[in-house]
Amino acid sequence: MTREGVGRGVALYGLASLVAIGLAAGVLILVYGSPAERVAVMWSAMFALVVQVVAFAIARLLSDQGKGIAGWGLGAAICLVALVIFGFVSRAFGMPQSAALVSLATFFFLTELIEPPLLNV
């Protein structure tokens, strides 16, 4: 696959992830009422988008080498590590833990679901 093909796949995934995360963030902002919880949801959304696009780019490169499942697994592992790190960082910054971690886990879950069909685009 060419560089343009990989770039196109990553761009499509980034756009699809932005839409999914944006819709989920809108729902979660309605669920979490306090301003601090809403800020935590927004930080989680931004962090999830960056982590998922990077993880997808890695998975896409591995997929092009015939190692799609390994790439997807590596992407999931990256998300798990990112969730743990974000838990410590969000706590250090005084964010409400339930809002920060539930929203981040939700964003990761949703974006992981849309990843497989776009690995071969």
Descriptive overview:
This protein is mainly alpha-helical and 121 residues long. The protein has one domain. Helix content is 88%, strand content 0%. The protein has four helices and no strands. Helix 3 packs antiparallel against helix 4 (97-118). The longest helix is centred in the middle third of the chain and has 30 residues, at 35-64. The radius of gyration is 15 Å and the shape is elongated. The N and C termini lie close together (10 Å).
Give a brief outline of the structure.
The chain is built from four helices and no strands. The longest helix has 30 residues.
Distinctive features:
single chain; 121 residues; mainly alpha; 4 helices; elongated
Fold topology:
Elements: H1 3-31, H2 35-64, H3 68-92, H4 97-118
Helix pairs in contact: 1-2, 1-4, 2-3, 2-4, 3-4
Number of helical segments? 4
Low-confidence stretches: none
N-to-C CA distance: 10 Å
Radius of gyration over alpha carbons? 15 Å
- Name the helix and strand elements from N-terminus to C-terminus, one letter apiece: HHHH
Instruction: Please report the total strand number as a whole number.
Output: 0
